[in-house]
Write the structure tokens for this entry.
Amino acid sequence: MPTLSINGAQIYYEDSAPNQDNLPQDQQKPVLLFAHGLLWGTHLYDKQVEHFKPNYRCIAFDFRGQGKSEVTKSGYDMDSLAEDAIALLEALEISKCHLVGLSMGGYVAQRVALKRPDLLHSLILLDTGAEAENPEKKADYKKMLRAIHWLGIKRISKKVMPIMFGETFLNDKSRKQEYKTWLEHLRQNNKKGAMRATAGVIERDGVLSRLPEINLPILIVVGDEDKPTPYEEAQKMHFAIKGSKLAVIKQAGHSTPVEQPEQLNQVMSTFLKLVNTQSN
């Protein structure tokens, strides 16, 4: 199981082309780094890795406290997680990548772009926002934290699913097995790790006012059924970042890579081709 010791934590990652450093520079694939959303892990991007790995070196990692990474006592604020992502790139000796971040991963990705734009070819922000947590939602998430504390993840997992997924996915009987698979992924979360990660997300500062500082090709994607970060949140980022692209994924909630992988892969492919053309 590949892990790296980063900022006091054992961070798990998956690399589709771990030996490509041995190849001549002109034969090396560009890197796609995937940062998952709250309570998930590398598995969130399985369909994207499968699609892109013929042409890209795909690296997905688990944030501390989640997936297969170590549960640490601290380091769950968005800036610390951004430092973890930066340290991962440096440890793998990756000079530049396309950074993909969903929800929490998107909050982190924006901070990486503000701290170390030299490490990025482009930024792909999925189902995320740039402001501090809405006070009403924050109160709801704090209730969820108390429920996790007293009841455990398993007892509340079915109530979390409608936050993570849109109505189309949840009501599609042909995807019942997928629903069960993702429910089980939720239940696998470490209780302490989940609570610390959730607290880090809901206590984050906003960075919307700083987004105009980012001078990179940026794709912003949102599902039309996304409840936690709806279209309005994506639009605010789009207006704040000059030259950014905004795409809406039909019949998708807060987990577009899972709910509508083909749509998302097509949108990402179009964007990446454009970025690669402009950089050549």
Summary: The domain at 3-279 is CATH 3.40.50.1820 (Rossmann fold). The chain is about 45% helix and 15% strand. The radius of gyration is 18 Å. The beta strands are 3-6, 9-15, 31-35, 57-61, 97-102, 120-126, 218-223, 245-249.
